[in-house]
From TrEMBL:
Protein name (database record): Ribose-5-phosphate isomerase A
Gene Ontology biological-process annotations: D-ribose metabolic process; pentose-phosphate shunt, non-oxidative branch
Species in which this protein is naturally found: Vibrio cincinnatiensis DSM 19608
The gene coding this protein: rpiA
Subunit: Homodimer.
Family, as annotated: Belongs to the ribose 5-phosphate isomerase family.
Length: 218
């Protein structure tokens, strides 16, 4: 199986968590794109979706799935999204696609976070994948200095503007032993919108696409 076939297996397996007549929280990325295709196959049974990015919104709308504004919804049963890394405690690094802030917002109103990944994303310790941090543009240099003090090597993601009009710093060389503490510490830096650690709100269910098919851990 190719990596994309494993992503597809995970994306389609998440369909079993979608209740008839529900509004689903939808993440962003190539694995989620398979989940969106799967949602398209049941779109008449779906009330709609809350989306975490312009890219996912456009794909959902192209399939005829109604988009709800996050502010209209108090609570979602499920939020389905990918990850760049996930550890055994189900903390994640996300934001490879620069959608981390909206992803965190939609995840915050969901009862269950269903993480869909291929088996290359499982790690013992987070940090091999550079940690994305969304930053207000005028704070870029200041936040870069503060992240360096924390032991990281932040690199400005050239040419990328988030859906919220901000920039991304990718922090290399972090060995993240306490994801919750680091998530809080980075979010406390003035000018940081949020960072890609999803530790305070980790995954509840992990669906991993493997060469043998989708493996579900509840
Ligand atoms: C986007 C994300 C994605 O979920 C993450 O980058 C994984 O992407 P993919 O499914 O394409 O491997 O956090 O901001």
């Amino acid at each position: 199986m190719t990596q994309d076939e494993m992503k597809k297996a995970a994306g389609w397996a998440a369909l079993k968590y979608v209740e008839k007549g529900s509004i689903v929280g939808v993440g962003t990325g190539s694995t989620v794109n398979h989940f969106i295709d799967a949602l398209g196959s049941i779109k008449d049974d779906l009330k709609g979706a809350v989306s975490s990015s312009i890219a996912s919104t456009e794909k959902l709308q192209a399939l005829g799935i109604k988009i709800y504004d996050c502010n209209e919804i108090e609570q979602l049963d499920i939020y389905v999204d990918g990850a760049d890394e996930i550890n055994p405690e189900r903390s994640m690094i996300k934001g490879g696609g620069a959608a981390l802030t909206r992803e965190k917002i939609v995840a915050a109103i969901a009862n269950k976070f269903i993480c869909i990944v291929d088996d290359t994303k499982a790690v013992e310790v987070l940090g091999q994948f550079p940690l994305p941090v969304e930053v207000i543009p005028m704070a870029r240099a200041y936040v870069t200095r503060e992240l360096t003090k924390l032991g990281g090597s932040p690199i400005y993601r050239e040419g990328v503007v988030t859906d919220n009009g901000n920039i991304i710093l990718d922090v290399h060389n972090l060995h993240i032993n306490d994801p919750k503490a680091l998530e809080s510490q980075i979010n406390a830096i003035t000018g940081v919108v949020t960072n890609g650690l999803f530790a305070h709100r980790g995954a509840d269910v992990v669906i991993t696409g493997t060469a043998q098919g989708a493996k579900i851990e509840e």
